[in-house]
Amino acid sequence: MDTRNLGSVEPLTVSALGLGCMGMSEFYGTRDEAEATRTIHRSLDLGATFLDTADMYGPFTNEKLVGAAVAGRRDEVQLATKFGNERRADGSRVGINGRPEYVKSACDASLERLGVETIDLYYQHRVDPDVPIEETVGAMADLVSAGKVRHLGLSEASAATIRRAHAVHPITALQTEYSLFTRDLEDDIAPVLRELGISLVPYSPLGRGLLTGAITSPDDLDAEDRRRSEYFPRFSGDNIHANLRLVEAVRDLARQKDCTPGQLALAWVLAQQTTDLSVVPIPGTKRVRYLEENLGALDVELTADDLAALETAVPRDAVAGARYGDMSSIDA
């Protein structure tokens, strides 16, 4: 497995492709903890050792699942988790919380659930508009000083917020949605990441599964799959039919490259790495067979012509529907 460095200040070396673990516990249909554990173990066996979770997934159960799965193999893993989307044990939402005292209590709780002494990369999951980012990152920096956290990250933060945060303590990575279907960050955020030496960790690099080609209609999703709700407009009404036409264009190009549509889409994200911006996608899956398919993207080599063909097939503004039905939690 190739590796990539996150951040420019004491970089964190991770596998070139990570594993998003959220769907193993919530949001994307039925759960199977045994298969999820097998998927994590297979990921480690194949060298994809950068694992991503958060306290709000489950809530709380995903960190426990990941912690149990990596027990005895901690030294192999680069472990990332997040705080800030506060939820109760019954799943109800409290709101976004960036208060310094909460940062520290949330970290202690995550360490206990994960069964580890240190978190490799600790993200603020969403920016709290009611708490100055300097106060939140100051509390996160205290966790680094205490040895509880090695590196700091932000998720879905604006360019201005990133600058302010980085002035308090070096930010290693920004996690945000990025794929052929979501390229908003290229205008304002990516230039700041390059300038400050902050890396990009794209979540949903497969367009929440649309770019795999496995979804042909909302009926392909489990009844309890949240993608069937109004929270994900790209999967509903006329939007999904327009978006599936774009996927068909990706499928045609994938045939020419002798790979799957998902592998081609992931290869495009991986190819966005430059000398001044490290990019490490974290496609999520809860099944071994999809994990293995995703890792096949590392073997797909794209030429400049291939990249141009993909971007012509999926014009940046062609995707129908907002990425969330409610974008109010996204820092702007």
Task: List the topology elements.
Blueprint: E1 3-6, E2 12-15, E3 19-20, H1 33-45, E4 50-52, H2 61-70, E5 78-83, E6 85-87, E7 93-96, H3 100-114, E8 119-124, H4 133-145, E9 149-155, H5 159-168, E10 173-177, H6 189-196, E11 199-203, H7 237-257, H8 261-270, H9 288-295, H10 304-313
Parallel strand pairs: 3-4, 4-5, 5-8, 8-9, 9-10, 10-11
Antiparallel strand pairs: 1-2, 6-7
Please state the structural category. alpha/beta
What order do the helices and strands follow?
EEEHEHEEEHEHEHEHEHHHH
- Low-confidence spans: none
The number of E-state strands comes to 11
* Biggest sheet statistics: 7 strands, parallel
Beta-strand percentage range: 5-15%
Distance between the termini: 36 Å
Mean pLDDT: 96
Strand order of the largest sheet: 3-4-5-8-9-10-11
Q: What would the principal axes of the Cα set say about the shape?
A: globular
Cα Rg: 19 Å
| Discrete helix count | 10
Helical fraction equals 25-40%
Keywords: Oxidoreductase
Protein name: Aldo/keto reductase
Domain NADP-dependent oxidoreductase: 17-312
Pfam family, one: Aldo_ket_red
